[in-house]
Amino acid sequence: MAEPHLEPVEFLRGALEIPSVSGSEREVAKYLAAGMKRLGMKAWVDEADNARGVLGHGPLQVVLLGHIDTVAGVVPVRIEGEKLFGRGAVDAKGPFVTFVLAVAGLPGSALEAATFHLVGATEEEAPSSKGARYVADKLKPDYVIIGEPSGWQGITLGYKGRLLVRARREKDHFHSAHQEANAAEELISYFTSIKAWVEAMNVGVRAFDQVQYTLRDFRIQPAELKQKAELLFDLRLPPRLQPEEAIRHLMAYAPPTIDLDFSGREVPYVGPKDTPLTRALRLGIRAQGGTPVFKYKTGTCDMNVLAPHWAVPMIAYGPGDSILDHTPIEHVEIPEFLKGIAALRTALEALVRQARPAPQPHTPLG
């Protein structure tokens, strides 16, 4: 009897052709679960609309979680030369499909030593991170790989944290000839003070350790009896600045007339360089002729959400150039995609050979 098989590029292409903006992932989850079933896995779509798959029955618990939602914006799915275009090719359907195909090709000895849990997670591109939060207390991994574009030779050890800040000002309306600052101007002054604080924090500091700020929205409502203005910005936080400490600074700079609301509090995370997981990934990359390189990302991903729940070795991995994230030319190089599958499969074989599971109770699948 022939082993179950899916053509890798066509499997990924099919996933890219199904739109899955955050909050609308169910159809692509069903497609991915069907593919995992064809590859011999137990597979289903869970209550958070995650695409779930399990293969193996050994004591070592390995979770491979990558998000299957995307930002908005259509990138026509097509192959041009050796490039596969489509929204999600890099961020991050491509890495998740890499996980599925790498696990599906593992030999029986690996499946006897370990159980591999695949999670195609929902709403990573939204502040909710619904899919990752849903499985946080349902799985008890010994090792975790997060699906994000690192380049097939890259191993990402850390991501910055995040804090979303919404500032509002409402005040009685007055004639524009008055010299008093209006509601919008007061918010601009506040944001300017935050910029100055951040820039002072970053003097002489490498990029990963800098605080980053981005103005995301600014709205002024037409004034009648009241002036109303609202400003939204986010901060990317290095390990030296935790969300609660950042909030203390932000409140100290704000006059009492400005209302602040904080959300998306994700802690920064940096993992160690030398673990059984990083050693296995380096071996897998070298086996395909690559040169492993460690990376630290200035963005945020589900690693930040799960690290406080899963205190185990964790890295992010996946083919693709993260510079193409969210762009109108998002694509993955097909040879890189195939090398990523092979490198990860070799890495997982190496991991189960060298690692031993930590003794802990395991929660039944749910």
UniProtKB/TrEMBL annotation:
The active site is at residues 69, 124. It is an enzyme of class 3 (hydrolase). It catalyses: [amino-group carrier protein]-C-terminal-gamma-(L-lysyl)-L-glutamate + H2O = [amino-group carrier protein]-C-terminal-L-glutamate + L-lysine. Pathway: Amino-acid biosynthesis; L-lysine biosynthesis via AAA pathway; L-lysine from L-alpha-aminoadipate (Thermus route): step 5/5. The keyword Nucleus does not apply. It is found in: Cytoplasm. Zn(2+) 2 binds at residues 91, 125, 326. One of its GO terms (molecular function) is zinc ion binding. Gene3D superfamilies: Zn peptidases. One of its GO terms (biological process) is lysine biosynthetic process via aminoadipic acid. SUPFAM superfamilies: Zn-dependent exopeptidases. Binds 2 Zn(2+) or Co(2+) ions per subunit. Zn(2+) 1 binds at residues 67, 91, 148. Keywords: Amino-acid biosynthesis, Cobalt, Cytoplasm, Hydrolase, Lysine biosynthesis, Metal-binding, Zinc. Its cofactor is Zn(2+); Co(2+). Its EC number is 3.5.1.130. NCBIfam families: dapE-lys-deAc, PRK04443.1. Catalyzes the release of L-lysine from [LysW]-gamma-L-lysine. HAMAP family: LysK. Belongs to the peptidase M20A family. LysK subfamily. This is [LysW]-lysine hydrolase. It comes from Allomeiothermus silvanus (strain ATCC 700542 / DSM 9946 / NBRC 106475 / NCIMB 13440 / VI-R2). The gene is lysK.
